Amino acid sequence: LLLLWRRRRGLWGKVEGARQRQERSLVQMEMAARRFREQHPSVNVVSILTLPLPELSRKLRDGSLPPEHVFYAYVGKALQIATETNCITEYLQESETQLRKVKLTGKPGLLYGVPVSIKDSIDCQGHDSTLGFIKNLNKPAAEDSVVVQVLKRQGAIPFVKTNVPQSLISYDCKNLIFGQTFNPLLYTRSPGGSSGGEGALVGGGGSILGFGTDVGGSLRFPAAFCGICALKPTGNRLSKKGIISGVVGQKAVAAAVGPMAKDVESLALGMRALLCEDMFNLDSTVPPLPFNEEVYSSTQPLRIGYYETDFFTMPSPAMRRAVRETKQLLEDAGHTLVPFELTNVDYVIFNFCIRGIFADGGASFLKKFKGELEKNSSGLLLWLAKSPDWLKTLLSWIAKPFHLLMTCIGFAPFFSTVDEVWILHHEIEEFCHQFIAQWKKLNLDVMLCPMLGPALSIGYPGKLSVAVSYTMLYNALDFPAGVVPVTMVTDEDEEELKGYQGYFRDWWDRTLAKAFRGSVGLPVAVQCVALPWQEELCLRLMKEVETL
């Protein structure tokens, strides 16, 4: 007992140390912003913060806007949003040194002088990538991830790291070390996750360009919940070297790193900057595909598939309306909209995604929690992973006919042999080929799909892991997918929600209805999808949707 007490005390000591570092970071930001204001009282910070990224970038590169004015304007705004939402875990104080170096460089890069925010799980030299785990504290990264290296070479200035849920396997944003992050639009709502700190910071205006990761919607949930845009590229379009995964080694569901911003043109600029020779030289596993301007800037009418529901998670009234209204606007603009029928989404989510990620019976996932003080945000998955095999099998047998406790299907029976995992991977490949065949039979360019929304109340994402169906499908397929906010919840949507029962009328459906309630005025997004390696086409549809 004494040893256990001492060990727990030691862990709490590490947590307290990390929280003090976080507090010191905010103090450093406050001092830096105040010092700049005192030295430059005539600088119009508000006018800088209202500039969209493409215009800001042009002014920085042509010298009409000094980099330090932009940098300290965003340090001050980021501090305000961090104070309100608890989204920043660490200020990268060396960014001030980098700011001075950037001014001495010759030819400015595409992101010259642009402050950027970085998700906790993306390595920055000299800083922890915790994933919300105490065991990862005080283990600073030896070098920058490739994405961060390329951003710096393009003149960008990474200046903060942002909060995540413990383990990343969650679309909320809470961990024992840094606590809960709040939605900047409504503090009682989740900012989404796992890139939730990024969503809150960019959504609140404290960062003009952020970078996160996505293995089931972790870029798209925060963007949709916080009313901004995000792009999940094809898994290997951007380098993942130096980015820490929630479940290391699994190949069934493709993870990706991607940008988050207030508008689509900013996402495109972020992709242009990253898809360069530096990226391809630093990570030779990334295909050398530069950004295709011709595809992105084309004005040819598109043939767009669409669906309003996946027949697994019933869309909220606002979600369904968002797709219908966007479809009509696209048709009015001269595009062709073609109904696309989804089938067997429940099978894909449980047999491909959840079983794929936890094909080792959850052993890798469990290992990360060993020795931790608290297991929040992934409680049900954790409990199931720890359960004996006979109980998992019993639960899955009980659950199947009633669509209850569906998540446990992912753990029972386990894939215990290599050949079973290979069979799974083959099934996923076959599903992907069938999906593409259906796509090509309809002669589609892109797809318009629902995106879960509005933002759920804090605490609900952990109870509603099944609601990832709209996003995780495109991780299983490894298709590029982005989100664009298109509308807000109306009083009519709220009234219609009273009749929401879901497809299975079970506990999950009832809980989701509760999580949607009281959302008038919150943003709702749609999802735009393209075939693998067609990020520029995906962005083109996103831009069209945003414009309309």
Automatic annotation (TrEMBL):
Annotated GO MF terms: amidase activity; fatty acid amide hydrolase activity
Secretion signal span: none
PROSITE patterns: AMIDASES (PS00571)
Keyword match Phosphoprotein: yes
Catalytic site positions: 119 (charge relay system), 194 (charge relay system), 218 (acyl-ester intermediate)
Amidase domain span: 73-539
Catalysed transformations (reactions): N-(5Z,8Z,11Z,14Z-eicosatetraenoyl)-ethanolamine + H2O = ethanolamine + (5Z,8Z,11Z,14Z)-eicosatetraenoate; 2-(5Z,8Z,11Z,14Z-eicosatetraenoyl)-glycerol + H2O = glycerol + (5Z,8Z,11Z,14Z)-eicosatetraenoate + H(+); tetradecamide + H2O = tetradecanoate + NH4(+); N-(9Z-hexadecenoyl) ethanolamine + H2O = (9Z)-hexadecenoate + ethanolamine
Database matches in Gene3D superfamilies: Amidase signature (AS) domain (3.90.1300.10)
Domain of life according to the entry: Eukaryota
Record's protein name: Fatty-acid amide hydrolase 1
Key words of the record: Hydrolase, Lipid degradation, Lipid metabolism, Phosphoprotein
A Pfam family this chain is assigned to: Amidase
An individual GO BP term: fatty acid catabolic process
Recorded family membership: Belongs to the amidase family.
Keyword field contains Repressor: no
EC number, UniProt record: 3.5.1.99
Lineage start: Eukaryota, Metazoa, Chordata, Craniata, Vertebrata
Binding residues annotated for substrate, in chain numbering: 168, 194, 215-218
